[in-house]
Amino acid sequence: MKPQESVVFVVDDDASVREALSSLIRSIGLRVETFSSAQEFLSYPRPNAAACLVLDVRLPGPSGLDLQRELANAGERIPIIFITGHGDIPMTVRAMKAGAAEFLPKPFREQELLDAVRTAIERDRATRDQWAELAQIRDRYETLTAREREVTTLIVKGKLNKQVAAELGISEITVKVHRRHIMEKMKARSLADLVRIAEKTPLENAGGGATYT
Q1: Strand 80-84 vs strand 49-56: parallel, antiparallel, or unpaired?
Q2: CA–CA distance from 187 to each of 1, 49, 54, 145, 180 (Å)?
Q3: Could you read off the pLDDT of 82-141 as tens digits, one per residue?
Q4: Which helix (H) or strand (E) holds 81?
Q5: Which end of the chain has less neighbouring CB within 10 Å, N or C?
Q6: Which long-range contacts (CB under 8 A, 24 or more apart) does 176-182 make?
Q7: DSSP code, position 144
Q8: What domains does the chain contain, in order, with CATH numbers?
């Protein structure tokens, strides 16, 4: 699915605050979606786009911290910028330890929020790019035969062709043929490139793992 334009989600139970934040964030050319509660946000079908969440700590029903925990449990990695007029040190520590991108006590300067939003969007975009690359690597790895996977595991460990052949009980010529197929399928330009790919994601485990939402 093609990524859509970046979006900032704002969750705050105060309509005037939602409108003010929406207007401010739109002023730098970003799309904004606003919500009055955690439940309303969770029921919204979120697009495939780099995003961040501007979240009030104190909300009717589940709190901002509750929403942060629910998103984490669901495997959603959206960067969260907490805002609050009632924040305290323990609350800040809880939010940051749980992965919050920023914590802004009210009143905060407009530029502070805009800077935090830009940083969070770029962080999410970089994370999405990384997960997309890893997904491509996993897809390519799935095209390898069982024998090609065995050869891959050994050559990325630095084994020479003759060592691979001896360990697998096949001829050196056969190893060379497998290497050529592996390089083509994995789109690796060189052995160093294949090793770099293997370092990004352990190839023997590339067929599984979490997905990015």
Answers
A1: parallel
A2: 22, 27, 40, 15, 10
A3: 988 766 667 777 777 777 888 888 888 999 999 999 999 999 999 888 888 888 999 999
A4: strand 80-84
A5: N
A6: 178/147, 178/148, 178/151, 179/151, 179/155, 181/144, 181/148, 182/144, 182/148, 182/151, 182/152, 182/155
A7: S
A8: 4-132 (3.40.50.2300), 143-205 (1.10.10.10)
